[in-house]
Amino acid sequence: WMGWDDRLSNGWCFLNHNDACNREAHLTFAGLVVRACRDLARSLHLIGMAVEAQKYKSTAARLAKQMMSVPEWTKGFGVHAAANAINTGFADAMDAEALFDNALLDSTNICSHSPFNQYWILQSLGNANKLDYAIASIRLCWGPMLTLGKGCFWELSSPEWTSFLSPGDKAPTMPSYCHPWSSGVTAWLSQNLAGIQPLLPGYAEYVISPFVSPANPLVSGAVITPAGRIEMTATLKDQTTKNNRKRRFLLINIQAPVQGFVGISRQIGSDHQDGTGCTIVLNSLIVNGRTTSVATVEDIVANNQDDGSLALGDHYNPVRSSSLLFARIPTAGNFTILAAYDGGTCTTTTAITPKSAKVGIPHIPPFPIPQYPTKTAIDRISQGNGLSVYGSDGFLLFGYSNGTDLRKLPSYIQNVSVQTHGFFNGWAPLPRKFVGTSRDDPSYLPDLAARTGIRSLGLVSKDDSNDDFDNEDMILNIEVRDETKKSLGGRMASENIVVDVQTSSNDPILLRKTFRVSIYCVAQDSSEKHAIRVMDLKTLNVIAPMGFVSNYTDGVWWHFEYHSSIRLRFMAIYGLRISAIAFSEGHSTDGVAVNSKL
């Protein structure tokens, strides 16, 4: 069981409801199990249960070896699986870099639909020593909840919601607006940005390794412990020497009631992809006015036998640990620590300010500029007559013939299916509704075959008239099934209405072209509105900016182009009605520009 996200089969898998977890969910859970065994081993060791600790340490190593032997390692891991693989502590620096490059560098897909899942992703960025990216992901993935909400973190969220919601608006899916499972970021900030962590149980000893960079030059924090309050501040400043050489200085102030360690970055640089900043290395360390030696974790463990030193050896993720040098803070009290860095002339970099976006997500460096494989558009003019254009290759009209679908799919579409998935009841088909007929209502759809002049309108719908949990949180999805998908195993398991559209596997020429998918909706009243999440069915990664449809009582066509199987998640805000899905040839014959990390 995990938090909501299509890429994880949407959180849970009820075998009695035919909800087989997809591969990404299995790989993600595998990483979590390995990490749990390793963390438990460390905890057992700290409380003196050496035999039991060794058992779980060996189990973690054995399972990690299996995990790293799967064919997908490392390039086939998605965002969630890559994050948990890094968090196991068994991925070396090269593997961690590969997992980051392949799965964690795309800002359009870095945010999980659930902030609960996002906590593991955030941890992985820190453990991979990508802390500027970690901080940017906080701004991207948690920031919108602070913008739109009242100071609490939500059960579900998307950075794209700020492009069409205002503070206080009802969010898509109507999530819980104060959800404890979403607050992991607050602990992470204390433990990794301020860097305050217990080294021994009960904070008998501490370790503080604050993170600062040219983009994030100041941090302060405090933690209440059984021994008393531990406080710290860290500031990064540049200085020009007499020979016009730039140096950087990290000033740390620590006040603590017990002894501990301070961790200092070996080098401080910039992750900016525009070339600003530079990387310079630690030159000297002064503690309370006296030059102090620093050492690696390995040297500290090799040369000391006290509990704190030994605990430090297994405290950090190895990739993160390798980026730090440590100095012993031998007593309780106040300490001023000055670390000097040298190595070249550096460009001053200011703090990062998120750049807003009219559609999609904002660009927050050091992530690359967001790029989507395709884009969406809305047509409010054509109304029902648009079927002749948007459905020139084929269509599916929901409930069109007295409540029965009218289906005329093109050769390149293998299947279109609509379902719902309830928290308590699992998968269930969605009933159709026949609205009626008309000769003069342009929002109704024409009969392209009979040409009688009589228009009809049916729909598959979702409203929020029922206040029970199983109904209120349901989501409508249109799923375009991948040509290689042979079973229902990849479907998400959530409270959703799902429409699957599967492209044909026997026409490779057509598959190389793009086709246009158009959705027709007619609202019952002007208050209805919904959001649309567009995903590649195989990876379930986002492929287009999130759509937002409102004010459509006269009918609206929403469409986009793609070249392969698709899933659409339609998220109700106030009601949701879909009358048709139509297909036509796309404008491109070479395929849309596809992100290789999909």
What does this entry look like structurally?
By secondary structure, the protein is α+β, with helices and mostly antiparallel strands. Helix content is 22%, strand content 29%. The chain is built from 14 helices and 27 strands. Strands 3, 4, 5, 7, 8, 9 and 11 form a seven-stranded antiparallel beta sheet that branches. Strands 16-15-20-19-25-22-23 form a seven-stranded mixed beta sheet, with no helix packed on it. α1 packs parallel to α3, α3 packs across α5 and α5 runs parallel beside α8. The chain is elongated and about 95 Å long. The chain starts with 22 loop residues before the first helix and ends in a 13-residue tail after the last strand. The C terminus is likely disordered.
Proportion of helical residues: 10-25%
Assign the structural class, choosing from mainly alpha, mainly beta, alpha/beta, alpha+beta, or little secondary structure: alpha+beta
How far do the termini sit from each other?
24 Å
The radius of gyration over CA amounts to 27 Å
Bin the strand percentage: 25-35%
Q: Describe the main β-sheet briefly.
A: 7 strands, antiparallel
Draw up the topology in text.
Elements: H1 23-46, H2 50-67, H3 79-87, H4 93-104, H5 115-127, H6 131-141, H7 143-148, H8 184-193, E1 196-198, E2 206-208, E3 218-225, E4 228-240, E5 246-256, E6 260-265, E7 267-268, E8 280-287, E9 290-291, H9 297-303, H10 307-312, H11 318-321, E10 324-329, E11 333-342, E12 376-379, H12 387-390, E13 394-401, E14 404-408, E15 413-422, E16 426-429, E17 432-438, E18 455-462, H13 469-472, E19 475-479, E20 496-503, H14 508-511, E21 515-521, E22 529-536, E23 547-550, E24 556-562, E25 566-574, E26 576-578, E27 580-585
Parallel strand pairs: 2-6, 19-20
Antiparallel strand pairs: 1-2, 3-4, 4-5, 5-11, 6-10, 7-8, 8-9, 8-11, 12-24, 13-14, 13-27, 15-16, 15-20, 17-18, 18-26, 19-25, 21-24, 21-27, 22-23, 22-25
